[in-house]
Structures are given as C-alpha cells and as structure tokens.
User: Fold this.
Amino acid sequence: MNHRSASLPRLATFLLALLALASAAPLRAELQVGQPFPALNPAALSGPVPALSGQVAVIDFWASWCAPCKASFAAYSRLHEAYAGRGLVIVAVSVDERPSEFDTFVRKWHPPFTTVRDVGQRLVSAVKVPTMPTAYVVGRDGRVRYVHVGFHGAATEQELRTQIEALLAEKP
Assistant:
C-alpha cells in the first residue's frame, strides 16, 4: 500500500466526521435577533408590499413544496385575524422559482395576509434563510426580535402569539 492509498481512508473518515458534525449543528439564521430586517424592495417581490415602518411584523419565508409551510399558513391566518387590527403585518415571502407554483399555492390557500414571491431570490439570499419555513418577528423599530426556524404546529403558534402580544404592547 503506498502513501497515497493509505491516506484515502483517513481522508474519507475525516470528511464523514465533518459532515456528521455539520448536520448535527442546529440550523441558525444568518440574520440575528437585534439586527434590522432588510427593506422589502417592491421591485424584487411580486405583488404589493405593505409599509412596515412602525408596525409589528412577521416575515415568513416559505415554499409551495414545504409541508410545514402549508401548516403554518393556517396559523398565520388565525394570527392575522386576531392581531391585524392592532397593528400586526404578516408578509409571507415565497422562494418558489416558478410563478405557477406560487400562484397555485396561493389560489388553494387564499391567505388573508400579504403573500409575495421573491422573484430573483434576492431577499432570501440577503437574509440567508436557513430552512423553510423560517419566520422573523420584527418590532416596531424594524429590528428582528425573534426568529422561528421551522414550524412546529401549536407550539410555534403559541410562541408567536405571546411574542406578538408583547411587541404590540410596547410603546411606539
């Protein structure tokens, strides 16, 4: 066995260990709590974009192929119904590359909140969203206050309710 063939098993073991370590690490969004959420550029998003200044906002990144995203839409509809009148804005940002997939999803679910498509994947790239869905809860000051990676049913919905209520209670 020559030197090169002896090092291949060690290299393979190292790469497998590195892969295992990377997959065991928790998913974390690049945009962190306390940082300002990037401006929603109407030119990069399909559909009208609401003004977020002075509002509490939930910005949710989703995709039509994502099962937890479908479950989250029902929860966001309930949150919208409960809090929109008090100043909550929900913007669901699709990362679907094909407009037809986005359109089919929106026609099926009829969300009562703003739903747009990130046409050139610019916003999702700027935020460095770790997985679908990921929601950013933004305070009236435009800063990220909470990040929800994934959607875990009633537990996530209850956490969002608690956070939204606290943020809406803060003085503008």
Observations:
- The radius of gyration is 19 Å.
- The helical segments are 3-24, 67-83, 99-109, 122-127, 154-169.
- Residues 90 and 100 are 22 Å apart (CA to CA).
